[in-house]
Design goal:
The structure is a single chain. This protein is α+β, with helices and mostly antiparallel strands and 231 residues long. The protein contains nine helices and six strands. It has one domain: Glutaredoxin (3-Layer(aba) Sandwich), CATH 3.40.30. It has a six-stranded mixed β-sheet with strand order 1-6-5-3-4-2, with helices on both faces. Helix 4 packs antiparallel against helix 5 and helix 4 packs across helix 8. The longest helix has 17 residues. Keywords: Isomerase. This is Protein-disulfide isomerase. InterPro entries: DSBA-like_thioredoxin_dom, TAT_signal, Thiol:disulfide_interchange, Thioredoxin-like_sf, Thioredoxin_domain.
Length: 231
């Protein structure tokens, strides 16, 4: 994986998929379809999403899943490895996975902040393709528990503990399959208007910014009861 070459991001993502809010800052500047608050009592920006587009998410390749495949409720996180809010989100997602074994979580890459984010995403996609979602989920937690910039070499170093030679991961990460998977994941985020990192899809609702574990748990419970993030 040629991390020293400028063309890396271009060949990974294609033109026109960059940009969006850096964010994740609690969805500031967005409205609320449903009146819900985050763990600090602040409004959570949210919006109804087109059901026909949401229905395409399960068909995306390279999504890292944890939780039962037959789960009635799935929470999708769209994230960037270098989003500071995504670090807190990763710890909360792991907590949710442990406390709610009937919940299915899907991790979808949206590396809009930097070329380094795209490099890391390609490494984790390579791990997901080689070893499956369990290994990719573990690597996601490891990377976002660290400090500093997360890039390709750092992701490869962390992935080495999984026992896959770096050369194998580089070859998979540079493959057309991974490039197209990453491009499709980013396109899905753009099509849904999820321009903050992290963002979430729960049912047909998009959440902009990280609400916190308690708030997410409440919204998941409400979705199960009444098919909305609040009843």
């Amino acid at each position: 994986m040629r991390f020293d070459r400028r063309h890396f991001l271009v060949t990974s993502l294609g033109a026109g998929l960059g940009a969006g809010l850096s964010g994740g800052a609690h969805g500031q500047g967005y409205g609320q379809t449903y009146k819900v608050d985050n763990d600090e009592g602040r409004p959570v920006a949210n919006m109804r999403l087109p059901g026909e587009i949401v229905g395409e998410i399960p068909g995306l390749k390279g999504v890292t899943y944890v939780g039962p495949a037959e789960a009635e409720t799935t929470l999708y996180e769209f994230f960037d490895y270098n989003c500071p809010y995504c670090r807190k989100a990763a710890a909360d997602m792991q907590s949710l996975a442990e406390s709610d074994p009937t919940l299915r979580i899907g991790l979808i890459n949206n590396p809009i902040l930097s070329p380094q984010s795209a490099q890391a995403a390609k490494v984790v996609l390579a791990v997901q393709r080689k070893l499956g979602s369990s290994a990719a989920w573990s690597l996601y937690g490891t990377l976002l528990a660290g400090r500093g910039t997360i890039d390709g070499p750092g992701a490869l170093k962390a992935a080495a503990k999984l026992g896959v030679p770096a050369a194998d991961l580089e070859a998979i990460g540079d493959s057309e399959e991974v490039r197209l998977a990453l491009k499709a994941q980013m396109r899905m985020a753009a099509d849904l208007g999820l321009s903050a990192t992290p963002s979430y899809v729960l049912g047909n609702t998009g959440l902009l910014g990280h609400p916190g574990a308690k708030s997410l748990a409440r919204m998941i419970a409400a979705t199960r009861r009444c098919d909305r993030i609040t009843c």
